[in-house]
Amino acid sequence: MNNYLNDFISIILVLKICEIVLKKIKTSNLKLKKRHVFFATAYFSLLFEVVFPFFLTRYTADFYDVIAYFLGAFVFILLENHDS
Hints:
By secondary structure, this protein is mostly helical. Helix content is 81%, strand content 0%.
């Protein structure tokens, strides 16, 4: 359960950090769109659940991790829409 919670929280943190960095670079009130959140989550899932386990023994592929990533992305979208 602990590892799934880490995956759930990690995608929220990664997306928020990306949003903050983009705001600093663009110097505007930028918000990530749903398609950007989906793409980043899909990329994150593909990288950590398909590519890394194929090349590195330290990583293992787990479908429940992908579910945790997308649940985290969904919560991120809900929190960002609630802030507006």
